[in-house]
Amino acid sequence: MPVLILKSKNTVIERISLDRDKSLNIGVLADNDLVIDDPAISGHHAEIEAEGDYFYITDRQSRNGTFINDELIISRPLKQGDVISMGEHILEFFYEEGETVPSDAKMLNVRMTMALDTEQHRSKLAHSVSRLADESNRKKTIAVLSYMDGSNGSLPLETFPVKLGKAADNDIQIKGFGVGKTAAIINRKNDEYRLTAAEGLSKPKVNYQTVKNEIALQEFDVIEIGSSQFQFHFQSVYADDGHSE
Predict the structure, then answer these.
(1) In sequence order, which ranges of 55-153 are alpha helices (DSSP H)?
(2) So what CATH class is 2-100?
(3) Cis, bond preceding 161 (omega within 30 deg of 0)
(4) For the whole model, what pTM was predicted?
(5) Is the dihedral of CA 219, 220, 225, 229 positive or negative?
């Protein structure tokens, strides 16, 4: 059977054997078959499954997209040596030595979507796209602070201002020497999220640089206050129940 080699920064992390009788779901959430810890990867990012002679990869309407050999794709069959990119990780697709490799000549190369010319696959892909479009209409994107150190969990940033500090009435309570009652405040101004340093001897840091006044936050910024460290990022949620994707 074919294999996937999961890499990050040229370091091999895992080798995965593909099964023709079982699809492989890929994403950051724990219910996936292949869980990749990468903030740029969606909760349910992509799926690989066998059909006919080929293994197909289908993007599950991820926020940052799925790329094969640097080309953005929706769905296409995988061929020997393909490099799949998701966030900061890559997956290399190979048939093992001695296996029969399907002919590339049978593939129809379409710019954004490559598929076998079969009614079965066309119908399946159309159904998948329709389902994902329906789900997309129920989603919204919100900003989130996720703990990296000092505790666990995350806080959706939906009601402003968001206050961080030692006092119990803050949205996030933080311990540590010199942390003020309210050490930092996050506000949203139009489409910008801005962090303002407030009280205390221990000033907040963004990407390990001290914030003296105010700074606009960028996705994946690392925020450090006292003994706690967070990452600022965006996340898709269902508008009706807050379930994250």
Answers:
(1) 119-137
(2) mainly beta
(3) yes
(4) 0.46
(5) positive
* Buried residues in 193-227 as b, exposed as e (16+ CB within 10 A): bebebbbbebbbbbeeeebeeebebeeebebbbbe
Parts of the chain with a pLDDT under 70: 103-139, 150, 238-245
Among 34, 2, 36, smallest CA distance to 18 is for 2
Domain positions in the chain: 2-100, 141-238
Structure tokens that stand for 63 in this block: 């926020």
Q: CA 59 to CA 40: how far, in whole Å?
A: 14
CATH class for domain 141-238?
mainly beta
Cα 225 from Cα 58, distance rounded (Å): 40
Please indicate whether the domains covering 2-100 and 141-238 agree at the CATH topology level. Answer: yes
The tens digit of pLDDT for each residue in 76-88 reads: 899 999 999 998 9
- Triad 118, 82, 60: Cα angle to 5°: 60
Both tokens assigned to 167: 């006092």
